[in-house]
């Protein structure tokens, strides 16, 4: 039997999100039924609900930053039990047999991973996300949330946390390394916290100094305004890693000039427009321009364990479900420090 649950959904592109009901599938052999307690709001929720990233599936229940409690498990589930604290991120399944899946990189599944919402499950039905009371997910795509993190500040880690942790680990952020984070927003503030906890020397590069006090409090050692041309002169050749968390088009040549020889500029923000790049910006200094997409399930669990060990959680503003549409407008206006989280008890 399917389960009817209350959710907030957009009926069509650009429509406001409204309270409705959806059906969750029957708990199968290897499924976990999660009582959702908190759901983060990611900027990508807004892009998809407004059909800005291509044709979308409506009605749409956004939300891929899910934290809750296990309510029921299928008879074949071995990793979780009723009462466990768990999370679900950006994907809820994959083919499981291709090389990326077998190597723990399910986000790069060659058949395409199944997104937590605005996707189609293996049963042929649309997937619905975390702006809802409950969700059913196969156990292989559920992660445990350690006791060291409260569920509300843990929810955004399922996207913002892993999106910044994965590239920082991959490119070797740690003691003796200098890391710059472009943008101090929903992603950037976690990038600062994680890079600092990894032991790197951290610099924030932001348009202005408006959030400087926040940046230093969150773990940055230095804070510079990119609107000041002297910043690019003073910091030339300074960084081992630059993590760009912004979705605005950048002067990539100017930022590549801030890297040391062999340094990497890694993008987790995704501008809609194509970029222009003079390849001599890369050739000179053997520099790297890279991208990164979330992380696999094992790495997501590693990130949560790391955050619990270092007492890291997102900086959040907790809201009621009735405030979702207002929160979307505030995100677009950069009026949040630094992640909205929905208290799903208000759905």
UniProtKB/TrEMBL annotation:
Gene3D superfamilies in the cross-refs = Medium-chain alcohol dehydrogenases, catalytic domain (3.90.180.10), NAD(P)-binding Rossmann-like Domain (3.40.50.720)
Which parts form a coiled-coil structure per UniProt?
none
What Enzyme Commission number(s) appear in the record?
A: 1.1.1.2
The record lists the catalysed reaction(s) as: a primary alcohol + NADP(+) = an aldehyde + NADPH + H(+)
Provide the alphabetized UniProt keywords: Metal-binding, Oxidoreductase, Zinc
Q: What InterPro entries does this protein map onto?
A: ADH-like_C, ADH-like_N, ADH_Zn_CS, CAD-like, ER, GroES-like_sf, NAD(P)-bd_dom_sf
Q: Which cofactor does it need?
A: Zn(2+)
Pfam family of this protein, just one? Answer: ADH_N
Q: Name one GO molecular function term.
A: alcohol dehydrogenase (NADP+) activity
Q: Where is the Enoyl reductase (ER) domain?
A: 15-342
Q: Which family does it belong to?
A: Belongs to the zinc-containing alcohol dehydrogenase family.
| UniProt-recorded name of the protein | alcohol dehydrogenase (NADP(+))
Source organism of this protein record? Streptomyces triticagri
């Amino acid at each position: 039997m399917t389960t009817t649950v209350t959710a907030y959904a957009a009926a069509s592109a650009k429509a406001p999100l409204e309270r409705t009901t959806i059906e969750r599938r029957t708990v199968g052999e290897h499924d976990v039924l999660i009582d959702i307690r908190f759901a983060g709001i990611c900027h990508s929720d807004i892009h998809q609900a407004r059909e800005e990233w291509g044709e979308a599936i409506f009605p749409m229940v956004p939300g891929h930053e899910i934290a809750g409690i296990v309510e029921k498990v299928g008879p074949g589930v071995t990793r979780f039990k009723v009462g466990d604290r768990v999370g679900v991120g950006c994907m809820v399944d994959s083919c499981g047999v291709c090389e990326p899946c077998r190597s723990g990189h399910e986000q790069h599944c060659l058949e395409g991973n199944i997104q937590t919402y605005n996707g189609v499950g293996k049963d042929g039905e649309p997937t619905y996300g975390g702006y809802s009371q409950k969700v059913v997910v196969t156990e292989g795509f559920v992660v445990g949330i350690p006791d060291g993190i409260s569920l509300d500040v843990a929810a955004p880690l399922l996207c913002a946390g892993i999106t910044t942790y994965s590239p920082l680990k991959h490119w070797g952020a740690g003691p003796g390394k200098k890391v710059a984070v472009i943008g101090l927003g929903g992603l950037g503030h976690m990038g600062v916290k994680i890079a600092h906890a990894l032991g790197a020397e951290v610099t924030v590069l932001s348009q202005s100094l408006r959030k400087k006090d926040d940046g230093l409090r969150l773990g940055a050692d230095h804070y510079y305004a990119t609107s000041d041309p002297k910043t690019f002169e003073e910091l030339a050749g300074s960084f081992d890693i630059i993590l760009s968390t912004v979705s605005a088009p950048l002067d990539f040549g100017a930022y590549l000039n801030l890297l040391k020889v062999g340094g990497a500029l890694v993008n987790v923000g995704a501008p809609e427009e194509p970029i222009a790049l003079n390849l001599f910006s890369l050739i000179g200094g053997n520099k790297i321009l890279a991208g990164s997409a979330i992380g696999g399930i094992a790495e997501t669990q590693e990130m949560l364990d790391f955050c619990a060990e270092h007492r890291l959680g997102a900086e959040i503003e907790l809201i009621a479900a009735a405030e979702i549409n207002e929160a979307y407008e505030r995100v677009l206006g950069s009026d949040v420090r630094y992640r909205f989280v929905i208290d799903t008890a208000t759905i």
